[in-house]
Structures are given as structure tokens and as C-alpha cells.
Protein: Sec-independent protein translocase protein TatB
Amino acid sequence: MIDIGLSKMALIGAVALVVIGPEKLPRVARTVGTLLGKAQRYVSDVKAEVNRSMELDELRKMKETVETAARDVEKSVHETSSSLEKDWREATDFDGDSGSDSPGTAYDSYSTVTPVYKHPGKNFRLKRGAVPQWYKARSGVRTKVQSGAARVARFRPKRFH
Structure:
């Protein structure tokens, strides 16, 4: 930038005082200060935008490298798993028959049915029914459901006429 020292500023101020005059000098100085402030803010905004764009470019490059690495890892895992599945099929194939069953069947190499998972259902009622009634009463387990209004009406003192 421009190298302006104290002596040069004093010279510029003296010339401005002579040229502009003492009555208009404060207003001109205020306007010049405002314009310089706006120029500095504009320059700092441009610098910040350039820095953001540089960081964004770096992040994009980093994202591309991470995505490439993830694709490579996924490909190697897929290749490894397919080779393991192939080796497993070869090792467990006792009949010399390679892959005659379709992959969706539920039969293994011994032609027996593999058990299929079955959801247990709602047997929590059976478990709760196994607890004795006297234990439920003693421990405060509710056995009958009541609404809040019904509970208030049940325990409200009765009026005498």
C-alpha cells in the first residue's frame, strides 16, 4: 500500500486546510473517513470470500479422496466376500455338485430344512400371569386399568344428605 508517515499526513492536512477552507474541512474529513472505512470493509469481505472459496476447494478435494478410498475399500470387501463365499461353497460341497440349489432355498448341503425364525408373539401376558396375585397386591402392581377421572370418583368422599 501507500507509505504515508506523520509528516506527509501533516502536509496533506495543511494543503487541505488551505484549499478546502476551515468551515468545510470537518465535513470533508468525515466523508473521507467513512469512505476509507467502507473500502477497508469491502477489502476484508473480498479476502474472506477468497479464503472461503479456497477452503471449499480443499474440502471438495478431500471429499473426492475420501469417496475414492471408500469405493476402493468397498470393492476390496466385495471381492474378498465373494472369494470367501466361493471357497466356502467349494469346501462344503460334499456331493461334487457345485451350486445346484438356488440361493433362495432353505435347504443346506444335507437336504434338511433349516429352522426359520418365528416371532414369539405376545407371551408377556403369560409371564405377568405367572406372578401370584398376592405378590402383585403387596408390591403395588396395578392389575386393573382405570382412567384418572374414574380413580378420582372412586376415592372421593361421599356426600351425606
The CA atoms of residues 89 and 103 lie 12 Å apart.
